[in-house]
């Protein structure tokens, strides 16, 4: 119990520090958001209007520490302010639009990646030296080493643009009304195939290696020899004895991975016009949209730390040795 | 009996055919699909909030009139005419009779007065910018259809700014507390497309105005406009190729091969000249302080090659240095140009001669010339990181300079650095646009030289200005005499060509691609009825009016 409380306190402090950095770092960049806004309007805004916007957006005033206190207050009251790119849309509304898609993409692709990766890794380790072991890890490592934009563009050009098997853009068909109808859900799945495929191709190599190495470690243990000596079938030894123990480090890795994937996949989102958080963050950076940037960073930080905490808890639950 | 039946039948057929003709040249129906670059769509149809202005300006809220610079005439929309008072201290605008909003209520002088007065107390609502620049003093209603605007000083140029006004319904907007954050759901508009059919994150569809003032002419032919969301130019290119959208307004690389070849019958583009692109030189420091150096710079450029190699041949080469470009070709002055045209010709030998005459010699033998006082010449030309065609342009510029012995570097910088360097005049050389695509060429010279603009505009801080020029610019606005205006322009062109504070390279193309798979009536080089600029509400309206479903 005290372990959990200590961990919780640790993560709380970590979040506070991370939030403070979130505030400081964008402010250190040169340039100011209203000039960036003016640039995107390409001079269509009269100069006097520009001045008025500067005053309205207000954060050019006040010393840094006043802005900092304002920022901390806004986080705890969940009033993250309006975006600059789409003024006066509140940041929370903009994120609420993008977050489900990133969660869906990140969640689905991580789950599929992990499942397939674990199965292949287990097989490869157990039949060390066999075809699976010699071919799969190396092949998928090679595919994963290709830069994400290259894989994305390949799939986009061949499957979407030329053969037209899959759609070019969007999370779902724009002509359909969002809702839990069969039509809409199947459209969502149809649109998700290529982005998920990209993420899997890029990520699966790591999971195969992860699981394979964990398994190989475990296979050297005495209790495996014991299980075999007891006369249990190969499959039972592999799943109930070896894999179960090898999963412990993998669980930690998965939890942390989901946290990081929440940062979004910029390249995939750019190529497939997928409504995720990655590209939003990138565009917010270019537009010096501080409120949006801060909210995105906050979200990523919270997710990473929360999933780290979950990983800790899971380890505690799965591994009796930690409870002592 | 039988004969009577046949005659009746023929009469009916003829009557129907006549009715179809009276209704318009094309049948009604069809949807136009256009791309908008944004993170997500929101339910905001307020032209004053700016969030989704491109969706509502022109097609939902018609302007008073559209100045068609390509054809040199005015297309009257809500206004019937305008007239300046003899002393140029006021003007009257007369609205057309019988105009209605999409909810059936009358559109009259009350709405116009209301819309004009919005900018008086709140700079964010000053669409024309004339309250902020203190030009307007008051607005009066003369009668149900006529409005008078009073000026603070003689001004004959206000008519250029009026098309930017968004005329909004008083009966909807008057009750609102803060107009700049008002979302205007269920919009009531005056244009051809006002009824919002659906709002989704990635698509907004707006359909026909049931009470459109031009409905009797059968306009508009199309029923609806579908706005589709994209986050990047590159996605739009793919969507155009796959016939998902009809009208593109962005740069497409190698367009003949990637877009046109995919379907030569229906995929097309037209890139008429837009604003002039110049390399601005900071004339306050050496070596730019010597006009002969600037002239040599200009003659060292092979503009044709730059356009072909750096920009795929899309822009228009500029062959004169008077400060305006192909966009205002009807205003070009042959007398001035014939004197100074040689500066825009590719003549590296003459450039090198000029450098020698001016005292720029290579004293240390490194192949590059030094200043007359012996100090090194090695300057940076600013360009924004990521604007690939301009980066290549600047690279070619520095290569051409090296050929005549001038050492220059391409310096790619972040937007904010580029922006502040130009405004504050802390650059050495920088490539940038110019204000040469507005309503009148005087705006270009005002933007280049008017002393009060220094620090506010990108194009004014090159170090060359004069009181005489300021006075000429002021005089231009205070007169409507064509002959005097022409003479003033000629003087300004002579001043620009003589002093050459910037080196003109080429005219930016108007990015415009069209897809004729479902929609016809597009403007093209042969059918050039208007400059096809999507983000200009008036031009967009004029194009939309001609489109019909095939």
What does this structure look like?
The complex is a heterodimer of chains A (324) and B (550). Chain A is an all-alpha fold. Chain A has 2 domains: 2-76, no CATH class; 99-323, MetI-like (MetI-like fold), CATH 1.10.3720. In chain A, 76% of the residues lie in helices and 0% in strands. Chain A is built from 13 helices and no strands. Chain A has helices at 2-28, 33-40, 47-57, 64-76, 91-126, 131-145, 148-162, 182-219, 222-229, 234-261, 266-272, 277-286, 290-318. The radius of gyration of chain A is 24 Å and the shape is globular. Chain A starts with a helix and ends in a 6-residue tail after the last helix. The model of chain A has no long low-confidence stretch (mean pLDDT 81). By secondary structure, chain B is an alpha+beta fold. Helix content of chain B is 30%, strand content 20%. Chain B has 17 helices and 21 strands. Chain B has helices at 2-23, 53-56, 109-121, 158-161, 170-173, 233-241, 255-258, 291-299, 303-310, 334-340, 348-357, 388-403, 415-424, 442-449, 467-477, 482-499, 537-546, and strands spanning 31-37, 65-68, 73-76, 79-84, 90-95, 136-143, 146-151, 193-199, 203-208, 224-230, 247-248, 267-269, 273-281, 316-317, 379-384, 408-413, 429-432, 502-509, 513-515, 519-520, 548-549. Chain B is globular and about 80 Å long. Chain B starts with a helix and ends with a strand. The chains are: A mainly alpha (324), B alpha+beta (550). Chains A and B meet through helix 2, helix 3, helix 5, helix 7 and helix 11 of A and strand 10, helix 6 and helix 13 of B.
| Beta-strand fraction estimate of chain A | under 5%
Give the proportion of residues in helices of chain B. Answer: 25-40%
What pattern of helices and strands is seen along the backbone of chain A?
A: HHHHHHHHHHHHH
Assign the CATH superfamily of the largest domain in chain A. Answer: MetI-like
Contiguous low-pLDDT stretches of chain A (5 residues minimum) are none
- The quaternary state of the protein chains shown equals heterodimer
Provide the spatial order of strands within the biggest beta sheet of chain B: 14-18-13-17-15-16
Number of strands of chain A: 0
| Beta-strand content of chain B | 15-25%
| CA gyration radius of chain B, whole angstroms | 26 Å
CATH topology of the largest domain in chain A: MetI-like fold
In whole angstroms, the N-to-C terminal distance of chain B is 41 Å
Tell me, briefly, the overall form of chain B: globular
Largest sheet of chain A: none
Assign the structural class of chain B, choosing from mainly alpha, mainly beta, alpha/beta, alpha+beta, or little secondary structure: alpha+beta
Question: Helical segment tally of chain B?
Answer: 17
User: What's the end-to-end separation of chain A, in Å?
Assistant: 11 Å
